Amino acid sequence: MKIIENCWDGLGAFDCQYGAELLFGETFTVYVSNWLFVPDDIAPLFSRINEAGCVGHCLLKFVGVSRVRTEVKIYSRIEDEVRWSEPVTVERLSSGKGVVEYDFSGTFKGFQSSVDFLVVADSFELHILDRDEPANE
Amino acid sequence: MKILLDCWDDLTASECQYGAYLFNGTEFAIYVSSWLDARPALSKQFSKTNGLGFVGHCVLKFLDVRSVQMRIATYSIELGGRTKWSPSTSQELSGSGKGGGEYCLSGSLKGFFSSIDMTVNAARFELHVLESSEPAPD
User: Fold this and answer.
1) Which terminus of chain A is more exposed, N or C, with fewer CB under 10 A?
2) Is A135 inside a domain boundary?
3) What pLDDT sits at residue A135?
């Protein structure tokens, strides 16, 4: 695993496929399987790059978290019409002192979905996982 | 996508890799990327099978949910290879469904050095088997 600190401004996390997320104490972590935009100098560090040049298999980790808000909508396709559900919003507060707002969005992998995250935290770390880390598929 | 009803007894979800879950108050759905054990007749339906015969890329969906209990622990590997576990945290989601059946699931959260146990109290189960690029390619 490679850890890169304070690199948020170079990332484009608006179209990612997300997996599980954990809020443990003052730390919020979410898994990204793919569709993260990163600067050219960081991209070769990733074990997964798709045809569009987007990368994945990493964790977005936020430290000193005071607040996490998620808004999720799912859709179904009936013939050619896409129908969206009412959004489900979850608001969690934590004891961190962070004041920096991190906005990111995309979908939950495996679900016809749209998710928006707002995390208010102190600082950010990008954890890049090796291919079979922490376990193979 | 193939939807299979009432096939819980043909599955063993004890060491799966899980992804995100969705809960809207009555339905609980959780993504499985791999390591689900399915009976041979069922395992052929899946788009992903690993070297040990475990399958993946599906959603376990529970309907008419009364409660979901989750216990999650994470660990780190220290110098020398020793495993150090964090204290586990528990969470309960309370639903408005009538429940009735108890479904036990365990494994890990994909991407995390972790262990997760869940007990879902729900009336019904559906297995949603996803095609390889469904609903979107990686």
Assistant:
1) N
2) no
3) 87
Domain count within chain A = 1
Q: Band the pLDDT of A136: cuts 50, 70, 90.
A: confident
Q: Are A12 and A34 spatial neighbours (Cβ–Cβ below 8 Å)?
A: no
| Residues in chain A within 8 Å Cβ distance of B130 | 110
Domain boundaries, chain B: 2-129
Q: Report d(CA A82, CA A89) in Å as an integer.
A: 21
Here the tokens at position A106 are 């995309």
Interface test with B, best of A105, A109, A112, A114 (most B CBs within 10 A): A109
Spell out a b/e string for A27-38, using b for 16 or more CB atoms within 10 Å of the CB, else e: bbbbbbbbbbbb
- Is the minimum CB–CB distance between B48 and chain A shorter than 8 Å? yes
| pLDDT, tens only, B56-90 | 999 999 999 999 999 999 999 888 889 999 999 99
Residue B102 half-sphere exposure, CB side, CA atoms within 13 Å?
Answer: 3
- Tell me: the pLDDT tens digits for A84-130? 999 999 999 999 999 999 999 999 999 999 999 999 999 999 999 99
Chosen for mutation from B3, B83, B84, B110 (greatest number of chain A CBs closer than 10 Å) is B110
Question: Is the residue at A22 inside a domain?
Answer: yes
